[in-house]
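seq:
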Amino acid sequence: MGKPKRHLQLRPAAREQPTFVLSRKIMILANLLKRAAGIRYRRLLGLPQGEWGVIAQLGERAPRTLGDLAAGMGLDITQISRSVSNLVERGLVTRSPNPFNNREVLIALTRRGEAANATIVAAGSQVNEVLLEAMPASERAELAELLLRFTERAERLLASDQAMDASDTGD
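struct:
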């Protein structure tokens, strides 16, 4: 005799979702941009995903503490600590004691790190032009303002979720 026939099991119908969920759309956009940037900066600088972001943050403002750097990237300290260590080994970043607080370490770019940041800025500017082409200046300004407001609100949501999580676990 032959094998028994398999019956196709139908999944229950998916619940109807709202057609527009802002956070999901932003996460998809962010993931696409992050993947493209990862490819770009690996090709241009030989840097893996997290490391070029550290350089870009330090290029905006340095020196910075690890905590300040993590907050600027929207990540946990543990997520970027290894990247910083790798960048120190590559000679792109330095660590030095904070002269005002001996418990803190300040992180800054070396000359090689500054050159890498210049490459990141130039490539990022090209990406911006592609993303914003044919968008009038007024819409660009409005978009920048909206992104700032969404980021501030997302930070408040994160803090709220962290507080609830801490109270649930008894921390």
